[in-house]
Amino acid sequence: MKYFLPIIVASLLSSALFAQAPLQPKNVEIPAVYQNISTNEAGFLVFTNPETSKEAPEFETPILVSLNDVRASFTGTKNGLQLNLNNEHINGLVYYGLFPDSDDKFPQPVFFKNSAKLTAGVADIDIAKTAGKYDIANWEQNGFAKLGYRISDDKGQIIYDGKIYVSGKGPFKPALSIVEGPFVNKIGSTQATISFTTNFPSSPYVEVNGKKYEAVQMMANIKGDIKHEILIDRLQPSTKYDYTVVFGDLKETYSFKTAPASGSREKFTFAYVSDSRQGNGGGERNIHGTNAYVMKRMAAMAMHENSVFMQFTGDLINGYSNTVADHELQYANWKRCIESYWHYMPFYVGPGNHEVLLTSFNDGTKYGKLVDKFPFNTTSTEKVFSNNFVNPDNGPTSEDGSKYDPNENKMDFPRYGETVFYYIYDNVAMVVLNSNYLYTPEADVIPLIGGNVHGYIMDNQLDWLKKTLKTLEKDDDIDNVFVTIHTPAFPNAGHSHDDMWYKGNNEIRPVIGGVAVEKGMLERRDEFLNLIINKSPKVVALLCGDEHNYTRMEITNDMVRYPEGWDKKKLKIKRSFWQITNGSAGAPYYGQEVLPWSSSVKKYTTQFSLMLFDINGPKVNMRVVNPDTFEMIEEVELR
Question: Does residue 302 sit in the same domain as residue 389?
């Protein structure tokens, strides 16, 4: 039986943006968690199938444009800017337009009536044509403008949606610009973190209440960096602050509100959704890797409902890349589509299986053999995810030191980084888990090559969860805890072949250094449920994704949870508990399956669904709204 996610072929092999390219010899150290991978005499990685003795060389399918190409490859011209993607095979169009010179809260470009033809990777953007009545940016007076641009290929698929500042009145030149952000992150009662990316190395700063906050710069990097994280501290709880990002001669001003003091028990609302990878229907439903249309609607609705944060748990993008460049381009498109709202409200992001970054071996089969990309310290799924998002860094370190660690004296596993964490807002705690750590996409391949399966929580992460929940249970200021993980404990639509069920096959489990771990998938599922249901009464619900629908189901002790003939211990469920799956942010929908626990499903829909949790002290009310139509799907009192 094959346990595999067929979307890999779309992302990894079939995209028009990809072209096979020869690898350079790596001579990298092979992680001890894998087996049957070696380096040949030429320095290339190979996988040797122990069943056939055939060697499969590593391959990569690098994209023809990188994030740097679409952001920084601008030069000034007499009439505007020239964009050079450094690849003569790319043709299409570049749509462009000015951001109005106004005090709009959610600034957006207005695309001009003309577009620039993209030929052999080069396009000339004629800003001079936006003079006179079209000069909504007032560049003729101010000498600078903020320009939005959108690159599409010759099939009409949007590759990237970007922005840049332009200086001059003709000739023009690219100016120091915030090309991503600014984003509000890690909101607390006395601090927040502002992050953003610039097109050139620089040393920008943030002003709040007349105080200047700067990022810490290393002496060896006196010119600054392009990625910036700036801590704003010594703030007052429940207070709105304007913040101004100053970069070069330009600045942008937005605002955020600090969280209440812990345990204040003020009324507030937060939002939840997952699975926004590219969908069908064309246009903004597929901006290389992400369904920007639906995700924008989700973010706008969350902001309209005064949400204080949004939790998003997995499958932001199509992913399944084997190049960091493509992965980061997709991440950039996801962040760009909700950027206008992220200026004000934090988005906490957890990983899913589509965030996987792969080392790939071509063995002649349709997909090849795939494992979590290494070297782990620079290119693992977890490392690249952590590099691209600003989450709390308070989770477990790695699976090193566990009983299946193949080498006690060195790091053999990827660091969890910012893929597992928790955060507190007033009397609510959110615990974010990673169900695709060290992920090898084909469960049947794992005994041959090693790695972890989709949906399995490994030992150190489970132990961290146990300790974290115990801490939260003892905290008198916390009334409600939510646990979120990408994969449901009980799938209902499209994932009965995996998640934490695998059609009832408990033999599915990780293999580390050639040795299968002790506990199978169903046993580990029960250990997980025991922690969040029986041991932790403050946990209100398990929030999941992966399945592209909205499903609310009630887990009880009477619910069928095991396959026929199950001869191991059965977990007694001591209280009724909600599993709520909401993977409806634009990924292609799944129809409901008939499974042993289907009678426990209380609500199911394939409509786009934003979950809004209204918190009032210990009381929790949930509203589920379609952000595309404003239809109320359901309203439920959870506690």
Answer: yes
Task: Assess if residue 211 is contained within a domain.
Answer: yes
Residue 23 lies in a domain: no
Answer yes or no: are the C-beta atoms of 63 and 14 closer than 8 Å. Answer: no
Q: Is residue 24 part of a domain?
A: no
Residue 538 falls inside a structural domain = yes
Strands 480-484 and 428-432: parallel
**Spans in the chain with pLDDT lower than 50:** 1-21, 218-221
Burial of 591 (0-12, 13-18, 19+ CB in 10 A): exposed
Return the structure tokens found at 100. 């109005």
Answer yes or no: pTM beyond 0.85.
Answer: yes
CA 115, 295, 372 angle in degrees (round to 5)? 100
Cross-strand pairs, 148: 97, 163
Q: 531 with 507, same domain?
A: yes
The position carrying tokens 């292609």 is 588
Instruction: Identify whether residues 629 and 529 lie together within a single domain.
Output: yes
Closest CA to 98 of 141, 136, 152: 136
pLDDT of residue 427: 98
Q: Do residues 156 and 288 both lie within one domain?
A: no
* Residues 522 and 462 occupy one common structural domain: yes
Two tokens, residue 150: 């959108």
Looking at the chain, the number of H-run helices and the number of E-run strands are 11, 35
Taking alpha carbons only, the member of 226, 181, 191 closest to residue 341 is 181
What b/e sequence results for 384-399 when a residue is b if at least 16 CB atoms lie within 10 Å of its CB, and e otherwise? bbbbbbbbbeebbebb
Q: For the domain that residue 215 is a member of, what is the CATH number?
A: 2.60.40
Handedness of CA 344, 348, 351, 357 (dihedral sign): positive
Nearest CA among 302, 181, 184 for reference residue 582: 302
**Same domain (yes/no): 369, 436:** yes
DSSP state of 190: S
Residues 6+ apart with CB under 8 A from 167: 143, 144, 173, 174, 175
Spatial distance between the Cα atoms of 477 and 263, rounded to a whole number of angstroms? 4
> What DSSP letter does each residue of 112-168 carry, written as one string?
EEEEEEEBTTEEEEEGGGG-GGG-TT-HHHHSEEEEEEEEEETTS-EEEEEEEEEEE
pLDDT in tens, 553-574: 999 999 999 999 999 999 999 9
Q: Is 509 left (phi over 0), alpha (psi -120 to 50) or beta?
A: beta
Q: Clarify whether residues 433 and 296 are in a common domain.
A: yes
User: 222 — phi, psi (to 5°)?
Assistant: -70, -20
Length of the chain in terms of residues written: 639
Query: Angle at CA 22, nearest 5°, toward 16 and 23?
Result: 115
pLDDT at 88: 92
**Per-residue model confidence (pLDDT) at position 8:** 44
HSE-CB at 477 with a 13 A cutoff on CA atoms is: 10
Cα separations in angstroms, 414 against 380, 385, 424, 452: 7, 12, 26, 12
H helices of 151-254, in order, are none
Say how far apart CA 231 and CA 457 lie, in whole Å.
32
Domain count across the chain: 3
Residues 140 and 221 grouped into a single domain: no
Strands 550-555 and 577-582, sheet pairing: antiparallel
Range of the domain at 519: 268-637
